[in-house]
């Protein structure tokens, strides 16, 4: 939380931000010595993982802030689709995640659970849904794919369904307008 708060402050006041990390982000490396481009060999749920993943999270947040982001379609800017847009992702509305987390916390089960939405969309399909929801006149700009972009993402929620009695209820097309309303308000408050 400290890194996230300081990144927000740095962004608000236009300050530079320096993050110092640790070689722990590499875990038990398969490469020696480790270059900055090495991704690491990490057990995300091992006994040392809290420290390791905390540092990895701080690095990730810092790089995401550095790369920018923003809400292109709401700002009347072209939406960017990387590569051919055929890579898939699954999107979940926050209330579904909260319900899943509450079901997990109220249960006696321990261990990783996939609490995602198995509805799978290509990035191009997502851009089209966003376009229709926000502004049908929006444009989509294609750029070369980013490094390390996974081809597909879709959680298997069988364990959560069976042990927690949980599954998502809000579809992308239902949740997106709610998110847009929230983001529009945030932009007005900037």
Distance between the termini: 21 Å
Average per-residue pLDDT, rounded, comes to 87
Helix count? 6
Secondary structure: number of strands: 4
Mass-distribution shape: globular
Percent range of helical residues: 40-55%
- Cα-atom Rg, whole angstroms? 19 Å
Write the layout of secondary structure elements.
Elements: H1 2-13, H2 49-67, E1 79-82, E2 88-90, H3 94-105, E3 120-122, H4 123-134, E4 140-143, H5 158-164, H6 172-189
Parallel strand pairs: 1-4
Antiparallel strand pairs: 2-3
Brief descriptors of the model:
mainly alpha, 6 helices, 7% strand
General description of the model:
Helix 1 packs parallel to helix 2 and helix 4 crosses helix 6. The chain is mostly helical. The strands form two sheets. Strands 1-4 form a two-stranded parallel sheet. It has a two-stranded antiparallel sheet with strand order 2-3. It has six helices and four strands, in the order ααββαβαβαα. The two termini are 21 Å apart.
Q: In a nutshell, what does this entry contain?
A:
With 190 residues, this protein is mainly alpha-helical. The chain is built from six helices and four strands. The chain is globular and about 50 Å long.
């Amino acid at each position: 939380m400290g890194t996230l708060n300081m990144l927000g402050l740095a962004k608000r006041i236009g300050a530079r931000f320096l993050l110092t990390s640790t070689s722990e982000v590499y875990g038990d490396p398969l490469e020696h010595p480790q270059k900055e481009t090495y991704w690491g060999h990490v057990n995300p749920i091992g006994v040392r993982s809290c420290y390791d993943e905390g540092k990895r999270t701080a690095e990730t947040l810092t790089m995401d802030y550095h790369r920018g982001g923003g809400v292109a379609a709401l700002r009347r800017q072209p939406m960017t689709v990387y590569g051919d847009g055929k890579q898939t992702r699954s999107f979940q509305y926050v209330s579904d995640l909260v319900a899943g987390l509450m079901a997990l916390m109220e249960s006696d089960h321990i261990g990783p659970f996939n609490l995602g939405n198995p509805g799978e969309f290509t990035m191009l399909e997502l851009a089209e849904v966003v376009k229709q929801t926000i502004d049908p006149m929006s444009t989509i700009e294609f750029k070369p794919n980013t490094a390390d972009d996974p081809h597909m993402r879709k959680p298997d929620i069988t364990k959560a369904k069976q042990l927690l009695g949980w599954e998502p209820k809000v579809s992308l097309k239902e949740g997106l307008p709610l998110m847009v309303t929230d983001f529009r308000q945030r932009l007005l408050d900037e």
